[in-house]
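Aim 2 progress update. The chain analyzed this quarter is reproduced below.
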Amino acid sequence: MTVIEAIRWSSDGDAVRILDQRLLPGREQYRDLTTVDDVRDAIATLAVRGAPAIGIAGAMGMVLAVDPSEKNHGVAMARLIDAHERIRCARPTAVNLAWAVDRMMSVASRQTLAGDALRNLLHAEATRILDEDRAMCRRIGEHGATLIPDGADVLTHCNTGALATGGIGTALAAIYVAVEQGKRVHVFSDETRPLLQGSRLTAWELERAGIPVSVLVDSAAASLMRDGRIAVCIVGADRIAANGDVANKVGTLPLAIAARYHGVPFYVAAPSSTVDASTSTGEEILIEQRGADEIVAAFGGQTAPANVEVYNPAFDVTPAELITAIITDLGIHRPPFSFAPPAS
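Predicted structure tokens:
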């Protein structure tokens, strides 16, 4: 089983190497990002995407902000603060990005270093974030695989695999581990409109891994459930509120509604770092609005009148009551969900 590596350090450790996901499945091209602007642009334009992966990219991008020749701590910190602010707001909904760059800033702020010493310190911290993500993906997969029966047809949405993380994924990790365990699994992957992360990325990734996959338009999912074709629905998350409400790629909410109606278990798989205990409910989650061109002129073709008004949220929020369980690296959480921090 071949699992792709979507983000890592370049061979010399001085650049962030990503697989440019805008070009898939037609072209497999790796890019080396050498500046903060490169990283911010790659995150904003979805060259690198998926909540865990953009968190890793953001952490690595903070390293690129450090000039190895700068000996003045104050100047070095000013550059880091600027990079932190620019990277952090590149995509506002996914909590992992803010979590990762805040962690990097916290490490830097406890030091009086500059130059090579500061860069090496932050390089090591970003590498820890990457390594932790790989281990976390494996744990999610091991927990999630227990919920996938042998011979299951599994429905998923967007891309939640190796392309979206530093490891084997979140929702797809459960599938990868189930297959490793010898279970027979067939995946139905929603296209995931408008940017087709399901057909362009998930189908490409699963095919490379040798896992049977069928692509369907998003609006066909409910019919599959009605016909008894789906055993399990499993998706990822970009932010999980304290009460278990989940923000994920737009189109997740209708899947959850259809799954509840048809009696199909609906699981969410995400790192524990995706849980935002400071956000009480999904009502408080800021939903990223993306450009009209993704709807009216995606992939170079005109698909709607050029001047038509467009509603293009990147995410929707699925209420906790529609979720059968939330799978994290810490285990399987079942309703009633409560991710609030413990009282002091």
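Residues 7-138 form a domain with the Four Helix Bundle (Hemerythrin (Met), subunit A) fold (CATH 1.20.120.420). The chain has two domains: 7-138, 145-333. These observations will guide the mutagenesis experiments scheduled for the next reporting period.
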